[in-house]
Every structure is written in structure tokens, then in C-alpha cells.
Design brief:
This protein is mainly α. The protein has one domain: Globins (Globin-like). It contains 8 helices and no strands. The longest helix has 16 residues, at about 80-95. It is globular, with a radius of gyration of 14 Å. About 15% of the residues are buried.
Length: about 120
């Protein structure tokens, strides 16, 4: 059985993240969560994390160790509203990709539970 990573493929995952970060980096309600001088690093880390999260190579762990995502997000004030906006941007980005039947929904459904876990304020 193919993983989501295999079904999406690395180049489409990168395209998705480019679309997504074009939204969140300029979204007035959540852009403060993303240091302006770190945009390229943020995109790189997200690609590495999602690659392994979706069943691909362990890129993030190989370079940064265990993800410990809740701990790594603690310095950022993540509210329920910020989580909802992040998810909205992700949904729009996925929908703009025209993934084959069911793949966009399968991908999106990976995010709400994890995003809720990141809320810390």
C-alpha cells in the first residue's frame, strides 16, 4: 500500500507548501507566528517534517532529531483562532492543487488533530 508521501510525490508536496506559505506568511492573523527572516528555513523544515509524517524518508529526524512538535511550538502563542486560520490556509492550498479523487481529503485529514495539539494559549 502506498503512503501519502508516495501518492503525493515530493515535487507536489513542495508545490503545496509554496502555495500554503504564500498564504500564511501574509495572513494578518497568523503571520506573526513566522519570523520574516526565517521563511526559507521554515519551508525547508516543514517539507522535511511532512515528508516523514506522510510516510516518506525521515528527513527531519536525520537533520534535527525527534520532531517533538509540541515542544518546538511552545515559544509561539498558538490560539484556537490561529489553528483554525492555519487549517483554513492548508485546506485552500490543498484544494488549489487538484489532487486526484480522495487524495486531497486524505491529506487534509492528517492535519486537524495535530493542529489542535499545537494550541498552547
Amino acid at each position: 500500500m502506498e503512503t501519502l508521501y508516495e501518492r503525493i510525490r515530493p515535487e507536489r508536496l513542495q508545490d503545496l507548501l509554496d502555495r500554503f506559505y504564500t498564504k500564511v506568511f501574509f495572513d494578518s492573523s497568523i503571520q506573526h507566528l513566522f519570523a520574516e527572516d526565517q521563511h526559507e528555513l521554515i519551508k525547508k523544515k516543514q517539507f522535511m517534517f511532512l515528508s516523514q509524517f506522510l510516510g516518506g524518508p525521515q528527513l527531519y529526524a536525520e537533520e534535527y532529531g525527534h520532531p517533538k512538535m509540541k515542544l518546538r511550538h511552545l515559544p509561539h502563542a498558538i490560539t484556537t483562532e490561529a489553528k483554525d486560520e492555519w487549517l483554513r490556509c492548508m485546506r485552500e492550498s490543498i484544494d488549489s492543487m487538484n489532487f486526484e479523487e480522495g487524495l486531497g481529503d486524505a491529506l487534509y485529514n492528517c492535519f486537524p488533530q495535530v493542529a489542535t495539539h499545537m494550541v498552547n494559549r
